């Protein structure tokens, strides 16, 4: 089998993005653009992947890790110059080499595989990935002869009127015979207006040597989209969103309004789950079967088991076991774990806490740094006070306990199982089993207090 090599060009700064972030690190649905490209080419199981870095080299390396080898293009002197930097790692390799751009996040493994196959079947020294463009203006045109062979690639500024009418465009992705690529690169010069070394010159050099130059025309023009500014980034995001949502729809997920539902590429969703408009599912989130996620919900890097309902709430780095619910307007902050049949009600915030099975935290409550066991009822307006200004402290509440409304639980305390906290209490000591903790001042009624008020003299108020 022909050896497969990949070169990803990711050295450009991307000034048109007008951003402090390097272009290829801008994200689309939870993954940087260059990561999208790398993820797809990895599916081809290539023997070598080399990423050419330049601006933001350390950040790109940090983002991609050891999934690829790296070479540095210290000066950006054109696409040909960028590929030349990989010579040290690849020039002695055999097989075929794809050159792809790190700012083309929509290309799929299937397209790369078909490019490889076409290249091999035609015994070509170079194969250009092309597409039919609805509006080819600005793209390099692919010029073929009467035998459908590629003669040359003509840039827009150099094209004749007849050539400008051609709608087959160069996507900037190529497959080369590896040896022929680096032999031709040694002949490329920068004798042009930009004083740069162009990868397209390799095509002309190989053609002048009577080598076979072919083209594989991909069926979906959208895949070829390169991202150079924020407008293109938004357009690519829309294409990717439609692709991701279509996958989930075909897998049995109900997405009521796909145009207004935002699901990252790595999210997993079980069948018969219903997702309303305006929902964001991000990161490595996994959602089970038969869940309901309503408008305005955001779930990030969380595990949601089957038969869970999330009402207009935010879930971050947390776990909701089966048959639980949250919201409306609940917030599960990182390291929250909601066990089976637990209920998290409206305007409840949970942070780094375990909520046991069948426990109910109904409304207007903060639970931080706590373990609540099973079958507990937490009344309205309870606050687990976990921070003294310097350290965080933990509270444990045993099973079958009852915490009355408007109580403050001052950590660290342990409330035993089958214990009670009277409404309005501020608890600073442990409460033993079967006991009721009361920590509030006794009520005093001031008789005839009304008579002290100016309104007492107003007949309309008496």
UniProtKB/TrEMBL annotation:
Stretches the record annotates as Linker: 231-251
Region (Pyrophosphorylase): 1-230
Enzyme kind, highest EC tier: transferase
UniProt xrefs under CDD domains: GT2_GlmU_N_bac, LbH_GlmU_C
GO cellular component, one term: membrane
Family annotation (Pfam families): Hexapep_2, Hexapep_GlmU, NTP_transferase
Binding sites annotated in the UniProt record for acetyl-CoA: 386-387, 405, 423, 440
Annotated residues for binding of UDP-N-acetyl-alpha-D-glucosamine: 9-12, 23, 73, 78-79, 140, 155, 170, 228, 333, 351, 366, 377
Binding note for cofactor: Binds 1 Mg(2+) ion per subunit.
Binding site for Mg(2+): 103, 228
Compartments (UniProt record): Cytoplasm
Cofactor field: Mg(2+)
Active site positions: 363
GO molecular function: glucosamine-1-phosphate N-acetyltransferase activity; magnesium ion binding; UDP-N-acetylglucosamine diphosphorylase activity
UniProt name for this protein: Bifunctional protein GlmU
Source organism (scientific name): Holzapfeliella floricola DSM 23037 = JCM 16512
């Amino acid at each position: 089998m022909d050896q497969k090599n990949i070169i990803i060009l990711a050295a450009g700064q991307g000034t048109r993005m007008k951003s402090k972030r390097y272009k290829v690190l801008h994200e689309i649905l939870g993954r940087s653009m260059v990561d999208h490209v790398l993820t797809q080419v990895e599916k081809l199981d290539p023997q070598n992947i080399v990423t050419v870095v330049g601006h933001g080299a350390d950040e790109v390396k940090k983002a991609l890790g050891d999934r690829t080898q790296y070479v540095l293009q210290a000066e950006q002197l054109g696409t040909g110059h960028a590929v030349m930097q990989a010579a040290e790692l690849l020039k002695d390799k055999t097989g075929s080499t794809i050159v792809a751009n790190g700012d083309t996040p929509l290309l799929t493994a299937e397209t790369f595989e078909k490019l490889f196959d076409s290249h091999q079947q035609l015994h070509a020294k170079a194969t250009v990935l092309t597409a039919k463009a609805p509006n080819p203006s600005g793209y390099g045109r692919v010029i073929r002869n009467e035998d459908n062979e590629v003669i040359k690639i003509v840039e827009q500024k150099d094209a004749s009127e007849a050539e400008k009418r051609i709608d087959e465009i160069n996507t900037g992705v190529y497959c080369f015979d590896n040896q022929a690529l680096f032999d031709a690169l040694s002949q490329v010069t920068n004798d042009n207006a930009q004083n740069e070394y162009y990868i397209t010159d390799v095509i002309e050099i190989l053609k002048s040597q009577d080598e076979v130059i072919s083209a594989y025309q991909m069926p979906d023009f959208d895949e070829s989209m390169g991202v150079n500014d924020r407008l293109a980034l938004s357009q690519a995001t829309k294409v990717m969103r439609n692709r991701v949502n279509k996958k989930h729809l075909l897998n049995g997920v109900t997405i009521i309004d796909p145009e207004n539902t935002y699901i990252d590429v790595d999210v997993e969703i079980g069948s018969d789950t219903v997702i309303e408009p305006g929902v964001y599912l991000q990161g490595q989130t996994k959602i089970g079967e038969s869940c309901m996620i309503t408008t305005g919900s955001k779930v990030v890097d969380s595990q949601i088991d089957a038969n869970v309902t999330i009402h207009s709430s935010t879930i971050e780095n947390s776990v909701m076991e089966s048959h639980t619910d949250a919201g409306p307007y609940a917030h599960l902050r990182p390291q929250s774990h909601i066990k089976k049949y637990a209920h998290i009600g409206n305007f409840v915030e949970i942070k780094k806490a375990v909520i046991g099975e069948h426990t109910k935290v109904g409304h207007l409550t903060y639970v931080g740094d706590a373990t609540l066991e099973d079958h507990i009822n937490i009344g309205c307006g309870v606050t687990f006070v976990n921070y003294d200004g310097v350290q965080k402290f933990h509270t444990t509440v045993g099973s079958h306990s009852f915490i009355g409304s408007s109580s403050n639980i001052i950590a660290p305390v342990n409330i035993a199982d089958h214990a009670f906290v009277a409404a309005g209490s501020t608890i600073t000591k442990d409460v033993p089993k079967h006991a009721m903790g009361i920590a509030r001042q006794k009520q005093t009624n001031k008789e005839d207090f009304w008579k002290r008020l100016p309104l007492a003299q107003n007949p309309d108020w008496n």
